TrEMBL record:
Catalytic activity: ATP + protein L-histidine = ADP + protein N-phospho-L-histidine
Keyword ATP-binding: yes
Keyword Membrane set for record: yes
EC number from the UniProt entry: 2.7.13.3
Record's GO cellular component terms: membrane
Name by which UniProt lists this protein: histidine kinase
Domain Signal transduction histidine kinase subgroup 3 dimerisation and phosphoacceptor residue range list: 230-292
Enzyme category, top tier: transferase
Alphabetically ordered keywords of this record: ATP-binding, Kinase, Membrane, Nucleotide-binding, Phosphoprotein, Transferase, Transmembrane, Transmembrane helix, Two-component regulatory system
Transmembrane stretches, start-end: 20-45, 51-75, 124-149, 169-191
Record-level Gene Ontology MF annotations: ATP binding; phosphorelay sensor kinase activity; protein dimerization activity
InterPro entries on file: HATPase_C_sf (IPR036890), Sensor_HK_TwoCompSys (IPR050482), Sig_transdc_His_kin_sub3_dim/P (IPR011712)
Amino acid sequence: MTSTSTPPGTHPISRPPLRLGLTLLHLAVLGTLGWAVIGLLLGAIGLGLGMLFLLGLGAIVLLGVFYVLFGLAWLEIERVASLYDIPAHPLNWYPRTEATFGGYLRSLGANFVHGRMWAALGNFVLASLMGAVMIGAFRYMIALIIAAFTPLTDAETVTTAFGIHVESSYAPLLVLLALVCAGVIVGMLFLHRTIATAIIGATARESDLTERVRTTAVQREGAMRAAEVERTRIERDLHDGVQPRLVSLGMTLGLAKQHIDDQPEQAKELIDEAHTSTKAAITELRQLTRGIYASVLDDRGLDAALSAVAGRSHIPVSLDVRLPYRCDRATEAAVYFAIAEGLTNAAKHSRASEARVTVRMRDDETGRPYIWARVEDNGTGGARVVPGGGLDGITNRVVAAGGTIQVDSPAGGPTALEVSVPCAS
């Protein structure tokens, strides 16, 4: 879904290549079109402020300008990231958390104070300014080079690009000024590279850190919910299954103790009954602990553990597991639980007659391995995630392990459950 110096899920901001030609092209475009865009936006802001008290039309104009600014900031981040190979996260719009007008206003406020947006817009203005300076320096350089060849004509004086009149005999010295202009052009290229990578790179690191914190919080919440669901399941299974059986066992042994002297045959029957009940309780306890963690995972791996699950299933299961090597315990446990619970749901609720399980080891775009698993059945479908239900428990387990889950269960079936859990470093 590594090295020891880079945590999983992060991307080091490497030293970007020079790419002077592309930078020159970018600044040339920004030096012309950039100021046109800035002028239009400033004019729209002025128009919106002027019309603010005219039936609220100004508010609509300002709202449109804000959306354009956000899109421009997104485009600027993508431009710099692609130009200098900076692994920056895209600028994401904060959605509203409530389907009300107040929720919409709070969403606008959160996006208005979005630091990455304003940093990207600032970089756009600076890049446009540097582009304008570069274009001016280029024009002066061309004019100075042309003026340097004045001695080839009959002119006695020459007017330079800066409006200074010099004798034609000194015109070749204008090449030095042309070189200064060329130095300004190159300086703008390196200055843009330095400033852009500093601003966008800093926001990329901040965004990456924010994403890691958010992911950690989601995983922590998933782990807490998974633990709560698991505790509830254990309590329910103990209360409904093992506990009554043990109480009945105690009562049977008590009766056998009372009649062991006067009615030994009846006491023997009671002891036999207690023995049978004890074996049943042990079986239930094994089933209960197997739902927490299968010991066969440690001994023989995920393939063998899933084979045992398929063998105990009430419906026929086609198992296809291809894992070239073992993953860490937490990852295997999450995948095992997801498949086991998926098969249990298929047998109990979907009225399926058969199921198929496919497990593969894959690599994500960074080369990090993860286990991908798919559980399919031919049942009636309609499976939904409800709090405390089987799919909710699967989701919590998978999210806590840093994975993702997808459920496709249309009414009428079939149902497909896919999970992807990254292997730990």
